[in-house]
Amino acid sequence: MNELLRRMLFLPDQASDYARQVDGLHYFIIITTMIAAAGVFATAIFFFVRYRRRADTDLTPHVEPRTIHEVVFVGLPLALFLVWFAIGFPQYAKLSLPPKDAMDVYVQGKKWMWKFAYPGGPNAIDTLRVPVGRPVRLLITSRDVIHSFYVPALRVKMDALPGRYTQSWFKAEKPGRYEIFCAEYCGLGHSAMLGELVVMPQEEFDTWIAEQRRGANAVAQDAAPSGERAMPAANVAEEGRRIASEQGCLKCHSVDGTRHIGPTWVDLYLRQEKLKDGKTVVADEGYLTKSMMDPAADIVAGYQNVMPTYQGKLSPPEVAAVVEYIKTLKTQAVRSGPSEGPVYESIPRPQ
Amino acid sequence: MPANTTYLAHHFESLEKQTYAARLGMWLFLATEVLLFTALFAGYGVYRYLYPEAFREASRGLETWIGFVNTLVLVTSSFTVAMGLERATRGDGRGTRLLFGASILLAVLFLGLKAVEYTHHFHAGELPGRFYTSDAVQGPGGPIFFALYFLITGLHAIHVVIGMTVLAVIGWRAGRGAYAAEYHVPVELGALYWHLVDLIWIFVFPLIYLI
Amino acid sequence: MNPSLARSEVPVWNPRNYLNSPETGLKSWLLTQDHKRIGVMFLVATTIAFALGGVFALLIRIELLTPGPTIMSAQTYNRMFTLHGVVMIFLFMIPAIPSGFGNFLVPLMIGAKDVAFPKLNLLSFYVYVAGALIALFGMIQGGADTGWTFYTPYSTTTITKVVPVLLGAFILGFSSILTGLNFIVTTHTMRAPGLHWTRLPLFVWSIYATSVIQILATPVLGMSLLLVAVEHAFGWGIFDPARGGDPVLFQHFFWFYSHPAVYIMVLPAMAVISEVVCAFSRKNIFGYKAVAYSSLGIAFVGFFTWGHHMFVSGQSAFNGGVFGVLSMFVGIFTAIKVFNWTATLYRGSILFATPFAYFVGFLFFLVFGGMTGIALATVSLDVHWHDTYFIVAHFHFIMVGATLMAFLAALHYWFPKIAGKRLPEGWGLVAAVMIILGFNFTFIPQFLLGNEGMPRRYFSYPEKFWPLNVASTAGASVLALGLVIVLVYTLVALKWGPIAGSNPWNSRGFEWDTPSPPPPENYETTPVYTHGPHQYDLPGVETPPAATPEPKHAS
After folding, report:
1. For chain C, which domains are there?
2. Range of the domain at B157
3. CATH number for the domain including B154?
4. What is the value of pTM for the model shown?
5. B interface mutation test: which of C33, C185, C221 has the most B CBs within 10 A?
6. How far is A322 from chain C (nearest CA, A)?
7. Is B117 domain-assigned?
8. Minimal Cα–Cα distance from A7 to chain C, Å?
């Protein structure tokens, strides 16, 4: 019954008990609405036929309602509405009271990406990993304009407000991958601000988070001023970072994933870039070097040809250092493929 | 009834109904004006609740004596307007013109004092939002206070200017004998408008300067 | 007192009417103070706006035909839906029925020669034109891309030309205020002798309730739009979180107006329907007081429901509950009306003409639009539906479904009154069926899209939403074709339509007591009323013959 109605109404998967409860109310409302509407329309159609016009100047009796009519007209829908509300409101109230044992995740909306941070450092962009069967409290905020964090499969949505924290929570019961949308209009990339909720078994999640912690520590060590234990590659990358900021690269290319005048450098390495002329290239070392020497040759779709050439301004080792730096710019999330944002590759990005 | 034929519009049955309609229309218009300011007052209330310390401090930094004198000036101008209306009910158009003129002079005084106050703010850098350079109040409360301060007092000053224009036109017409003892609705409505402008200031003064 | 006498006459064109006297030149129209001419000018202007908004809507639907970019860029798309919203709401729906039909009919229905302030009425029209031109200027300059809701801080930081559009909407608000003020004063002071409040046509009751909302809510909207404009232009930081401002405060201000504004659009629609249902079932309204007072009830409660737009903005569960329950009362008042309209048909004499077809469509859209509204007010379901296509479908059912149906019903019912010509009945029914079906095919898929989770204002979408989007676009094209048919035969009928005669529907609404088209002064002698409108139990009070407007109610 649940499954049949869910499919008839095009509702997405129910990834939590809460979603199932909300859908229960949904079905109840749909069914009562249909019965009530059928009653009204059947009556109306009966009247159309029974009392159709016979002469242009028919006289009709003057009918006045009795009090009981109006009482029924008010009382019946009111009773029905209050029953609906009595079911719906406790669900809403529940959504605003996260359980005490909930795991916290900090959610930050930003034009046009989602950033998820777990206590203790690990964080991810556009992919929210949670263990199955454990309540998760989301502490949601925004860096720029209002966004809205929305997981249809959980029937949960909460606005991300700049300068404020809002909260919501869920307990996913079914492992799987679910879509995350931004539901509040936020500009050009609004419909591309997609994310993914990955509900995984507790052990897998524990392994993943432990890996992330290690990774975070390693990065922290790299950045340590002593520099003794630092790997040579990190030195080159550090040199690349310095060059990139000196040469003004970072004025146009962000290193935090934001869309700026030029494409972001985050996850750029080995990314498939769609070019203006419709071709696709993989952003390997060759492409990155070529783009510095002859920027106008392969413009990524959606960007303007404004970058000056660095031919002669950068020596080959410097170019290599910048490329190495770009290679280090990876989001923490473990990604299978080199896609830029979320994993729904069929979605064309806006111009 | 000569008055009826002179002042009655074609679509009204009687002068009483026409007068009643004009008054009702004016009161409704005043209600919309009040609501216009109410939105700003509500905003002021919200931010005062969010930043109580900063608002108290910023408010203390204002020149209360200017606000106080301005209140006196406006109340006096309302009084002269009321006297002007009283002259009009007796058919003394010249008296109305004289008293309305006095009110306009008081309004000019009000605006002058307001300008002195604004100059102070400019020099002290107490300006709205990103133009705020004063260090008198820490945190974001100060700039917001001055944003609301300039919006409320600025909008009120615009209303004062409109009110002055209304008084000038009506006073001038009254002086030329356009109205009579049995028909002086425009004078009455103009006076009502001026009282509203005054009344709004009566709310603005304690809200911004005193509490 | 023989009712057949008036009917059997060949329809006669009223020779001295507001269209040809006192003058016919363009100047006499532009400087007119006649409420009928101003009403007609409003109708023409709002119809143009409706056509413009309709073109935007079609472009949006074409863009959404495929998951990726179809005919425009994301930037253009964002501007397009903003302009669609702004034009349809501020330029068409808010003024169309009150300022257009209301202007024409309210004085006729209360036996007055004109509205209380004819000059203000004309001013209201020019303020409307000015506001529309400024908004149009903004559109030509690139247009805003904020959505018609202008949510901060997006609207204060966008690089598009949001300020002219805001100013345009601000100025249009003044037109709305002036018209509302005029109607309230007119209803209070201009009623003919004997027309007590309990005899007032329900159309006037609803327009009165609408005017109250216009007066009370519009100034707040004006102020908040002005604040956004100031913020966008100068950066004063009132709504800017970076400067300590509160972006959600704007939503409170905005919906304090814009929620009641929904009733500015729907109450006039209910006004029209209350007349149409009586005229075409030849029955007095069932439960006059209930219908009249529920209009006031909606106007009143509408001011306390704005928070239901912010169930997911982080307000407390308690607030959510209060706003949810209050929103349900609007549903109660609407339900009262629906039941009473249906009950009016009981023992009537129903003529299934074009206006009645639109009444049926109206009933359908109002029932389902209303019920989905109540479902949204259960709060927990709103969390899922908020800002998805479900909301889009819901408010199109109410605001467009109901309001557009009423607008078209009014057009077909009163066209003989306004132009003195008849519209073709056969084409009318064909177009009505197309419009009602097309409308359902456009928006029922959108309800399902919302269920499925597609957020609104999406330029591109995952492929699983594709089939329903195609269905919606297909429906929209049928809807558009139906509307074009209406436009074409209306324009044809203006010139070549058959003469309608004074009262082609044999209606006993008060506006038909004067010949069609009405003479410039409406009534030569002020009528005296002894009973309410639409009393079909009394024999022989059909309307007077065309040339001699002798009011039959005169005592």
Report:
1. 29-513 (1.20.210.10)
2. 63-210
3. 1.20.120.80
4. 0.83
5. C185
6. 33
7. yes
8. 10
List the domains of chain A with CATH numbers. 2-95 (1.10.287), 103-214 (2.60.40.420), 231-328 (1.10.760.10)
State pLDDT tens for residues C509-553.
999 989 889 999 899 888 999 888 988 888 765 554 444 443 444
- The verdict on C525 touching B (C-beta cutoff 8 Å) is no
Whether the ω angle into residue C455 lies within 30 degrees of 0, i.e. cis, is: no
User: From first to last of its 351 residues, what are the pLDDT tens digits of chain A?
Assistant: 889 999 999 999 999 999 999 999 999 999 999 999 999 999 999 999 999 988 877 788 888 888 898 899 999 999 999 999 999 999 999 988 889 888 989 999 988 889 998 887 788 889 999 999 999 999 998 988 999 999 999 999 999 998 888 989 999 999 999 999 999 999 888 999 999 999 999 999 999 988 888 776 665 555 444 433 334 445 677 778 878 877 778 777 877 777 777 888 887 887 878 887 777 888 877 788 778 877 777 788 777 777 777 776 777 677 777 887 887 777 654 333 333 333 333 333 343
Question: Which phi and psi (to 5°) does residue A178 adopt?
Answer: -130, 155
The verdict on ipTM greater than 0.90 is no
The full DSSP string for C136-205 is HHHHHTT---STTTT-TTHHHH-SS-HHHHHHHHHHHHHHHHHHHHHHHHHHHH-PPTT--GGGS-HHHH
Euclidean distance between CA atoms A244 and A266, whole angstroms: 14
Residues A40, C321: C-beta atoms closer than 8 Å: no
Among C152, C175, C177, C181, the residue to mutate for chain B (most B Cβ within 10 A)? C181
Chain A residues with CB under 8 Å of C350 CB are 47-48, 51-53
Q: Tell whether A25 is within 8 A of chain C (Cβ).
A: yes
State which residue of chain C sits closest to A94, comparing Cα positions: C317
Task: Count CB neighbours of A45 within 10 A.
Answer: 12
What subunits touch chain C, counting only 3 or more CB pairs under 8 A?
A, B
**Are the C-beta atoms of residues C275 and C364 closer than 8 Å to each other?**
no
Continuous segment of H or E residues that includes residue C517: none
Q: Whole-angstrom Cα distance, residue A235 to residue A223?
A: 10
Whether chain B has a CB inside 8 Å of the CB on C253: the answer is yes
Count of the separate structural domains present in chain B: 1
**Greatest Cα pair distance in chain C:** 77
Closest chain C residue by Cα to residue A184: C387
Cβ of A9 within 8 Å of Cβ of C346? The answer is no
On whether residue B15 sits in a domain, the answer given is no
Q: Is residue B119 part of a domain?
A: yes
Of C286, C387, C460, the CB nearest to A348: C460
B29 in any annotated domain: no
Kindly state whether C241 is in contact with chain B, defined as any CB-CB distance less than 8 angstroms: no
Residue of B nearest to C239 (CA): B144
Angle at C86 between CA C84 and CA C92, to 5 degrees: 90
Nearest to C349 among A9, A33, A54 (CB): A54
Assess C528–B contact: CB distance below 8 Å, yes or no. no
Q: Which one, of C221, C226, C296, lies nearest residue C256 by Cα?
A: C221
SS3 A338: coil
- Long-range Cβ contact pairs of A75-84 (< 8 A, separation 24 or more): A77/A36, A77/C331, A77/C332, A77/C335, A78/C328, A78/C332, A80/A32, A80/A36, A81/C328, A81/C331, A81/C332, A81/C374, A81/C377, A82/C328, A84/A25, A84/A28, A84/A29, A84/A32, A84/C374, A84/C375, A84/C378
